[in-house]
Specification:
15-stranded mixed β-sheet, 15 strands, about 65% strand
């Protein structure tokens, strides 16, 4: 009995430290299942709130999390719902609902479900579901649309956009009927479908079905396929990316087929 009382007292003190930002381990409150070791691990099975900046090696969320400060993790896995001021991780896997007020920075990441974020900076990023963001910048960006998505500006080395294939269950649930709306897209190589964009600046590109492009500037080879439309095209010298007035050449809706080549 004496050992049990000591354990209960230790657990109570530990929980109080989570609640008090002025003490070691403070600023992190957990309700229900969870574990927190300062600088090492935060696991949330119930609900948790972080009221300060936090850095851990592993962040796992299976319930709900609200982080008012900036969070950094070597590895982050989010399967429930989470909201952050900002999040930085070397490896990120998120399959629930995630909201980030400021910036998401990842080396390698996978986002599924519903995502709202201010700005994304990534090495390799895969998105499944729907995403809303002011800006995404990535070396490799793959988007499988499962709902309506909107990104003001995208800049990528390699960009691929498709509708997700949800099968029969996906059709019944209304999945696989998404589209991406963007003001400006810039990519070295783009392979896109179901994208509506005011301006695209690319090296090489395939503009697939469902695309509606206002102005397309390219420096390599571009193919516009059936079911896509481009109102205006402009060929640029390789390496020239500056915004400016489009030439009158190519004005009007482009037809299916190769637009330019070497």
């Amino acid at each position: 009995m004496r050992v049990d009382r000591r354990r209960r007292r230790w657990r109570g003190e530990k929980f109080e430290r989570y609640l008090n930002p002025g003490r070691p381990g403070g600023g992190v409150s957990i309700s229900g299942a969870g574990r927190f070791v300062e600088g090492q691990i935060l696991t949330v099975g119930g609900s948790a709130r972080i009221s300060r900046d936090l850095e851990v090696e592993l962040l796992t969320v299976g319930g709900s999390l609200r982080a008012d400060g900036r969070v950094r993790a070597e590895t982050a896995r989010i399967g429930g719902s989470a909201s952050f001021r900002s999040l930085e991780a070397k490896r990120l896997s998120a399959g629930g609902s995630i909201s980030i007020e400021e910036t998401l920075k990842v080396d390698s990441g996978s986002l599924g479900g519903a995502v709202r974020v201010g700005e994304v900076r990534a090495g390799t990023l895969s998105v499944g579901g729907s995403i809303r963001a002011r800006r995404i910048e990535a070396e490799v960006l793959r988007i499988d649309l499962g709902g309506g998505s909107e990104v003001d500006e995208i800049k990528a080395g390699i960009l691929r956009v498709r509708r997700s294939r949800g099968g029969l269950l996906g059709s019944l649930l209304g999945l696989g009927a998404g589209s991406l709306r963007a003001r400006r897209i810039e990519a070295d190589s783009a392979d896109v479908e179901w994208v509506e964009c005011d301006e695209m600046v690319v090296g090489n590109a395939r503009i697939g079905r469902g695309c509606r492009i206002g102005r397309l500037s390219y420096s390599g080879e571009v193919r516009i396929e059936r079911g896509a439309s481009v109102r205006e095209t402009e060929r640029r010298p390789a390496g020239e990316w500056a915004e400016g007035e489009a030439s009158s050449a190519g004005e009007g809706e482009a037809s299916e087929g190769d637009v330019g080549g070497s």
